[in-house]
Design brief:
There is one protein chain. 43% of the residues lie in helices and 29% in strands. A 4-stranded antiparallel sheet has the order 3-4-5-6, covered by helices on one side. The longest helix has 51 residues.
Length: 155
């Protein structure tokens, strides 16, 4: 192939011819040394890598969020169970005769490590106050507690 003109023009013409040959006639237009074609569409490797990094950060944050939600649900579930146990114990104490109400406690063995303690005080001669505290340890070893109180009058 022979190109006429100065060396710069020869290089320029060769590049154009080479691009036209390689792209099999899909050249749309030629402007200032740049050839635009239908084949210049798509994503670069850098764009794909940046997108993957952004998606990875988002997915990792969602994973840590889901772990936090699971832990919070576990604590809420245990708190609901403890509330039910404490209310059951208060009902048992309410059914006990006024004269035999005494301070006491009950506990469950591991893995729950549940302790329910109650104190009975008599602020007036015909009135007893019961304060009940339920404590337990969660899976991380953190201690949680709930406190309930009630008054019972003599019949």
């Amino acid at each position: 192939i022979f190109f006429a003109g100065t060396p710069e023009k020869k290089v320029k013409h060769f590049r154009v011819w080479n691009q036209r040959f390689l792209m099999k006639g899909k050249v749309k237009h030629y402007k200032e040394g740049k050839i635009k074609s239908e084949q210049n569409e798509g994503f670069t490797l850098l764009e794909i890598l940046i997108t993957l990094v952004i998606i990875s950060v988002g997915l990792l944050s969602l994973a840590s969020l889901s772990i936090s939600v699971i832990r919070a649900n576990s604590v809420a579930n245990k708190m609901t169970q403890m509330t039910a146990l404490a209310q059951d114990r208060l009902e048992i104490l309410r059914k006990t005769s006024f004269a035999s109400l005494q301070t006491g406690s009950t506990s469950a063995s591991p893995p729950d490590n549940i302790n329910i303690n109650w104190t009975v005080t008599q602020p007036q001669t015909n009135l007893k106050q019961i304060n009940l505290t339920a404590t337990w340890n969660d899976s991380t070893g953190k201690t949680h507690s709930l406190t309930f109180g009630t008054l019972i009058a003599s019949p």
